[in-house]
Specification:
The complex is a heterodimer of chains A (about 260) and B (about 280). With about 260 residues, chain A is an all-alpha fold. Chain A contains 9 helices and no strands. The chains are: A mainly alpha (about 260), B alpha/beta (about 280). The structure holds adenosine-5'-triphosphate (ATP) and magnesium ion.
């Protein structure tokens, strides 16, 4: 009996901690949004230059790997579609599945996971190091709000850059798939593209874009929450970095599934 | 040390009576503080007058940094415990707090320089974010403050390229760049050679002389404490043992106070069980 109670107690404590963390995340988000709008009034605007620097770091610097990944995904989908549709002799319809799954699912998801690994970890590590070195304290005593100075630019950058990357991934993936399919079926590239544009609705593209913005926000908040909650020196930095990547990827995949379900029912 | 002693003491120091007649700028009122179950500050009260240099001394782990963090508002706010410049920092609104913070400068025990910026940018940061000056003016002001701490010519270095003492001095330059009314220094002279450390003492005295700045200095350096302190607060395991001018501290009858200022080894007196537990790592 006591053991059972202990289990429940442990679950209860974990749940409470989870809610605490989400509360913290929500507060961070609210504060960031607030600084964007009232920063000028407090004479502490969210700096465009900082935001721009983060956009370069999170988005532009990730271009090569983003292009490589999305081209690979496009090829992989093309290969798979031709194979499975070939079983019914329906290869000519491969473009439908590729177009929809790339724009609605693969681009946001793969870019989300890429940025979670690449930038989510960097955010957590940076914030954790700054917390341990008391750089965050130093900001605070100077009267420079750390959320305004550090967090808001990162969140804005992610919310803007992830959709951009997803958009690019759409083009690259579909382009790569088009090349492969048209070469394999010996049809024209132009007709593949034409068919794809016919089948794709703006809604599908928007769905992916908005979703990736949301993923960007998740990555940023989870990175910041973990980084700011660091304890225990250099080892702690490693721990929160790993944790933030795992949590961000989990959050992305799970919310992607939920969004996918809700948006198709 | 001989260098420091040989220099003539020319820097003006106000008398105790004169200071006592001035307005109070820092006030701590019966402050208790615990980290979890471990209480580290017991009923601490303290008043600092305008233009006064208050030294806080005490063994390692006696709660000096914790007290300082309360003073600068880095601990969870509690109403009516700490007043800076007449304002209760426990009940200030966000905007008022930002305003107040422009008037205080803090140099942390381990510097807390921003590792992603070079020294000059570190010093300029408060100006850039809070003062809205043009780049040239900020450059000049940063260079001036770096000169004050004997760091001119090192502005382009990154914090990782500095020695421990240089980090300390750069962080002091950053703390005074906004010409604060209150200055808080956590062990400014640890890790500095005697000459630089004595120069730092002079610097603190000069800042007070020139700008009427009030200073709270945490230090282990007895000599420096006696040189710069108008009063010395002795903190022992979270309790204030004494808060007196240097000449009275010297003749204070409390044995622990005497141990501390005569550098007799009292704080090595470690609870063996606690020691073993620490070795075991929890
Ligand atoms: N964040 C914290 N969490 C838990 N305990 C803490 C924390 N910070 C300090 N302490 C404890 O509080 C006590 C006082 O620490 P503090 O840093 O104020 O000492 P100090 O007088 O500044 O020492 P030193 O001269 O070594 O810097 C110590 O026993 C320390 O273990
Ligand atoms: Mg300390």
């Amino acid at each position: 009996m006591a053991a059972v109670l202990k289990v429940f107690e442990a679950i209860g404590r974990r749940t409470a901690k989870g809610f605490d963390e989400w509360g913290f995340g929500a507060a961070l988000l609210a504060e960031s949004v607030m600084w964007v709008f009232v920063g000028r009034y407090y004479r502490q605007p969210v700096r465009f230059s900082h935001t721009f620097a983060e956009m370069m770091r999170f988005g532009i610097a990730a271009l090569p790997i983003a292009i490589l990944l999305s081209a690979t995904i496009g090829l992989m989908l093309a290969i798979q579609s031709l194979y499975s549709l070939g079983l019914f002799g329906a290869q000519n319809f491969a473009y439908i599945g590729i177009a929809l799954s790339v724009t609605r699912e693969f681009s946001p998801l793969i870019m989300g996971i890429l940025i979670a690994g690449r930038s989510g970890s960097a955010i957590a590590a940076r914030l954790a190091t700054m917390t341990i070195n008391q750089e965050v304290d130093a900001l605070q005593v100077m009267g420079i709000n750390p959320v305004r100075f550090l967090v808001a630019p990162m969140l804005i950058a992610l919310v803007i850059m992830l959709p951009c990357l997803a958009m690019l991934a759409n083009l690259v993936s579909i382009g790569a798939a088009a090349l492969y399919v048209s070469a394999s079926l010996d049809t024209s590239l132009g007709s593949y593209i034409y068919n794809t544009l016919q089948i794709l609705k703006t809604d599908d593209v928007w769905h992916g874009i908005i979703k990736s913005s949301f993923f960007g926000l998740l990555i940023g908040l989870i990175g910041v929450m973990n980084g700011a909650g660091v304890s225990g020196g250099a080892e702690g930095v490693g721990r929160v970095t790993t944790r933030s990547v795992v949590q961000a990827i989990t959050a992305i995949v799970v919310s992607d599934m939920v969004i996918g379900y809700l948006s198709t029912h | 040390m001989a260098v420091a002693a040989a220099e003539p003491e020319t820097i003006w120091k106000p008398t105790v009576e004169e200071l006592a007649s001035r307005p109070i700028v820092i006030e701590v009122d019966h402050l208790d503080w615990s980290f979890g179950a471990r209480q580290v500050l017991f009923n601490v009260s303290m008043k600092v007058h305008e233009g006064e240099i208050m030294v806080i001394m005490g063994g390692s782990g006696s709660g000096k940094t914790t007290l300082l963090r309360h003073l600068v508002g880095l601990m969870p706010p509690v109403a009516n415990k700490v007043k800076l410049l007449g304002q209760d920092i426990g009940s200030l609104k966000a905007l008022e707090k930002l305003e107040l913070r422009r008037k205080i400068g803090v140099a942390f025990q381990f510097g807390a320089l921003f590792s992603s910026m070079n020294v000059a940018e570190n010093v300029k940061l408060p100006l850039r974010e809070l003062a809205h000056l043009d780049e040239k003016t900020m450059d000049i002001m940063a260079r001036l403050k770096l000169e004050v701490v004997n760091m001119s010519g090192f502005g382009h270095l990154m914090p990782a390229e500095l020695s421990g003492g240089m980090v300390k001095r750069a962080s002091i330059a950053r703390a005074i760049v906004m010409d604060p009314k209150l200055l808080f220094l956590d062990e400014p002279s640890s890790g500095l050679d005697p000459v630089v450390s004595s120069a730092l003492d002079d610097l603190i005295l000069r800042l007070r002389e020139a700008m009427g700045i009030s200073v709270v200095v945490v230090t282990h350096d007895v000599e420096s404490a006696f040189k710069i302190g108008d009063r010395i607060t002795v903190l022992d395991r979270g309790h204030i043992l004494a808060c007196e001018p240097p000449d009275q501290i010297r003749v204070n009858s409390n044995e622990r106070v005497q141990n501390l200022i005569n550098r007799r080894s009292e704080h090595v007196e470690v609870d063996p069980e606690e020691y073993l537990r620490r070795l075991a790592g929890d």
